[in-house]
């Protein structure tokens, strides 16, 4: 399967994504990333994930995911650095109250 020809969805992962995130971490033989987490989804399947809290990323080792991981890291940087997207990041942090995964505390705002 070639992801170059398929749409890549990038979105914050939520509680209902927990089983897929656990599956991905197991495949990558990695620990679950701290939340909030952005996910890279191809053809309805989570193939990569990136922690906004720690910059840790995990990915399916049996798929080509370098480009997806790069996109996730770029989007995470955009969310942390600025503008109106900063409000979106705040909503993502607040929306994690019901999430059952490992969760980081929200970073203090730069003054």
Question: What is the compact description of this entry?
Answer:
The chain is α+β, with helices and mostly antiparallel strands and 111 residues long. A hairpin with a 5-residue loop joins strand 3 and strand 4. It contains three helices and four strands; from the N terminus they run βαβββαα.
How would you summarize the topology of this molecule?
Blueprint: E1 8-12, H1 18-27, E2 37-42, E3 45-51, E4 57-59, H2 66-81, H3 85-94
Antiparallel strand pairs: 1-2, 2-3, 3-4
Helix pairs in contact: 2-3
Structural notes for this entry:
The chain has 111 residues and is α+β, with helices and mostly antiparallel strands. The protein has one domain (3-96): Gcn5-related N-acetyltransferase (GNAT) (Aminopeptidase). It is built from three helices and four strands. Helix 2 (66-81) crosses helix 3 (85-94). The radius of gyration is 14 Å and the shape is globular.
The count of strands amounts to: 4
> Uncertain spans, ≥5 residues at pLDDT below 50?
105-111
CATH homology-level superfamily: Gcn5-related N-acetyltransferase (GNAT)
Query: Strand-residue fraction?
Result: 15-25%
State the strand order across the main sheet.
1-2-3-4
The domain count comes to 1
Which properties best describe this structure?
111 residues, alpha+beta, Aminopeptidase, four-stranded antiparallel β-sheet, 32% helix, 19% strand, disordered C terminus
